[in-house]
């Protein structure tokens, strides 16, 4: 009899356990080595077969040290972490990695497909042993499944597992004390690199918070306050609050750090509450003129001297805006506006198809990030249709192709695509014509893989990197 089928009674005599436990359940309660999670996934497609072999050899070396049989609870926890990370990465255009969005999407679909929790903590990792027909169904593709899996493999997301010479795949789930077996591919790299995946998610979330969500929240709060003040334009109290809003908007334009933007968002939050309080406390007789003296004094210090509208801190200290005083009515409305602002911020981040918002690109940066365009013409505050067509003509792109790009990507994204192509051509990084290169970009856009934000982010980092000092 095995140790799984027996225990002892109080007299010390062995007896058969009616609830026989599998070896995996027993091992799960014993101390055993954790799966190492410090592997780094490639940040781009592995350049050649040698790089691919080197990467996969490292994965196989680690795999040899793992327990053949996985633990249910650990596997469930690992699967949850991987799926949560991939769920975010496949739904955004990322700027700190050049791995295409479609690769994360297909890997996410495979992770959902590989359901047995125990495999996620086993030596094999989650095994992809399904047929070509099933893989095409899971990935939503029409071409050969092997080609799609090879592309995912060359980005380091999967590795071969007991591959057969004929390329056929199979899978047999773990049963009792027998681990899962099969042939095909394994998602083991995702388990070994879960820390790296989660770190990538946190970096991207932080960048999105700074470059997309917070600015959108601030704009939404300021717009809500301006809408409330619009009918009272010309009244002294309304103009003073409007000046504070203008100063806040100016602060936002010059802010880049998350801490600064968070402080501005909180100031906008408080300022909106004051605007709501001012407007909400007006009586119908005084609504066009100004609040009553008692109402006004609760919002603005009428004894205070005139303020410089460019100095928000001085205005806040005299008007009570920094303290964010609220009426009960204003508090309720302000909470609604805050929730609406947060919703818009999240929507703006998710809708950033090409990663432009996430990169924090501003048109005044054009000549610094794309130096070949210096001296052509100014794109500030935003490019016009004429400017984009002139840029296309200067790059020897036909008017028809330029119009097609604008129609497919939108004016601003199309202009940035032209700038990217022009800079690559000027740097000698493309050997084809700029028109052919742009057609390749449009093909990527149709697949959801055009990542302009990554290019912008990378070029900006390159331009601000300090030059090494030359020793005397």
From TrEMBL:
Residues 1-15 have a biased composition (Polar residues). This is Uncharacterized protein. Residues 312-321 have a biased composition (Low complexity). Residues 1-21, 301-346 are annotated as: Disordered. Residues 323-346 have a biased composition (Basic and acidic residues).
């Amino acid at each position: 009899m095995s140790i799984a089928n027996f225990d002892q009674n109080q007299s010390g005599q062995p007896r058969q356990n009616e609830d026989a436990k599998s070896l995996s359940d027993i091992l799960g309660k014993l101390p055993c080595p954790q799966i190492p999670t410090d592997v780094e996934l490639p940040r781009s497609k592995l350049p050649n077969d040698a790089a691919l072999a080197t990467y996969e050899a490292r994965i196989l070396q680690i795999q040899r040290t793992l327990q053949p049989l996985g633990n249910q609870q650990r596997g469930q926890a690992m699967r949850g972490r991987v799926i949560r990370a991939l769920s975010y990465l496949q739904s955004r255009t990322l700027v700190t990695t050049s791995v295409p969005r479609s690769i994360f999407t297909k890997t996410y679909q495979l992770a959902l497909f590989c359901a047995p929790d125990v495999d996620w903590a086993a030596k094999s990792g989650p095994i992809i042993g399904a047929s070509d027909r099933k893989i095409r169904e899971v990935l939503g593709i029409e071409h050969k499944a092997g080609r799609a899996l090879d592309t995912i493999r060359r980005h380091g997301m999967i590795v071969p597992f007991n591959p057969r010479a004929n390329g056929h795949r199979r899978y047999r789930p773990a049963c009792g004390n027998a681990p899962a077996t099969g042939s095909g591919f394994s998602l083991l790299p995702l388990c070994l690199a879960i820390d790296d995946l989660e770190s990538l998610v946190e970096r991207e979330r932080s960048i999105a918070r700074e470059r997309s969500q917070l600015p959108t929240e601030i704009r939404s709060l300021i717009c809500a306050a301006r809408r409330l003040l619009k009918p009272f334009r010309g009244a002294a109290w309304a103009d003073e609050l409007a000046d504070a809003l203008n100063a806040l908007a100016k602060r936002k334009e010059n802010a880049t750090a998350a801490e600064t933007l968070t402080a501005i968002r909180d100031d906008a939050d408080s300022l909106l509450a004051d605007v709501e309080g001012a407007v909400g406390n007006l009586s119908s007789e005084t609504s066009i003129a100004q609040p009553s003296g008692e109402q006004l004094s609760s919002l603005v210090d009428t004894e205070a001297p005139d303020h410089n509208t460019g100095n928000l801190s001085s205005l806040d200290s005299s008007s009570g805006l920094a303290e964010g005083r609220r009426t009960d009515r204003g508090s309720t409305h302000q909470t609604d506006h805050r929730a609406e602002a947060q919703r818009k911020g999240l929507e703006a981040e998710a809708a950033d198809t090409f990663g432009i918002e996430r990169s924090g690109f501003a048109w005044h940066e054009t000549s610094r990030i794309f130096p070949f365009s210096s001296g052509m013409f100014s794109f500030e505050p935003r490019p016009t249709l004429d400017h984009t067509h002139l840029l296309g003509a200067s790059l020897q792109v036909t008017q028809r192709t330029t119009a097609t790009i604008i129609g497919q990507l939108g004016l601003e994204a199309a202009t940035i695509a032209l700038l990217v192509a022009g800079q690559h051509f000027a740097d000698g990084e493309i050997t084809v014509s700029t028109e052919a290169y742009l057609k390749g970009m449009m093909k990527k856009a149709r697949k959801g893989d055009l990542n302009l934000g990554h290019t912008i982010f990378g070029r900006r980092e390159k331009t601000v990197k300090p030059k090494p000092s030359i020793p005397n």
